[in-house]
Amino acid sequence: MAQVPVQTIHRDPQLFYWILFPITIVMILTGILRHYATVLMSSAPKPLDLRSTREQRSLLHGISLRSNFHTLSPRSFHTRRDTIITAYESGAYLKDPERKGQPPANPMTDPSSMDGMMGMMKNQMAMIIPNTLIMSWINAFFSGYVIMKLPFPLTIKFKSMLQAGVGTKDMDPRWMSSISWYFLCMFGLQSVFNFLLGNDNAASQMAQQMGQMGPQAPQMFGPGADPNKQFLTEAENLAVIEHHSVLDGVEQRLLEGIRV
Amino acid sequence: MPSQQELDLQISPLVQESLVHNSRTLHNLQSLTASLFGVGAGILGLESYSGFFFYLLFSLVTTLLVYALRIAPTSISSSPSAATAAKGGVLSRYFRSPFDFWTAGLTNGLAGFILTWTLFYGLVRA
Hints:
Chain A is mainly alpha-helical. Chain A has ten helices and two strands; from the N terminus they run ααααβαβααααα. Chain A has one domain. In chain A, 18% of the residues are buried. Classes of the chains: A mainly alpha, B mainly alpha.
């Protein structure tokens, strides 16, 4: 019966009340605060003027015609397509038709696009400031305490991450210090926020970072996009559609369905 | 002419918003139950592999219950046409793909599971 003796460390049970619970509660409350701060700071989208609304809606009209063409009869589809392509190519829906050939304005100088930039800045700030504060708070008060033991073994490589500030060489990497409990909370509290705040909450910074890392959807009406070029591309897309209707051969399908 | 698959999709279209709503509901359920499984595993004092097996088993049971109680009855009784059967069975009427349905829960809830597992293991076994 030669077993490796299990390391046991006698810890003061007060550690739970004075380290573990405060960190957890602070993390949860910060998440809630961040959610409501984001809600409060988000500015309502400014109403667009008539001409730029027309520009956007007519582009959307072309796109929805392209994706739903199969519900139209051939005749009405062709009429719509001809109208839209003519208007697109002549630039009838453009916001200011005389600026057709020129390159788009620099988004940094355009005052209307500064709002979007400010919104992004605010979000970044709402993420960075609480994280920095909590990290330094934990480092200042709780560094060097061993508070818990992970229920699963880890390799030695995790030691420097989990036991930052604990200078004991031979300790099992399963023992974790307060800073690693902070990281665990950061990853795992998403479900708690889902439960508390509803689904599309802004509480977890992890979800937001994931969203930023993912493939960015091309901004359709963002600053820097040339509407004339978008119109021409869309006209080309519409022109190559080979029309068919869902009602083609519907009698055949109906009869087949009846026979079975 | 369009391909057969394309035509099927146009005749009986899938609404993206509903698919997203279904996935989100399932995601909510899974992350909540994963945290509760973590509480269970921590109180039972499971360690290493047995804890992860516990999680695997119970999240599969959860998904199976959703399938058996919520999806299969309505989907089968509404007599799936040949089109839906060809595209991957009854699940494809409600979710993007069956693979997604069966395995997405494991990754969704894992972080929450580890959090509550560690917390309750620490509190009980200390």
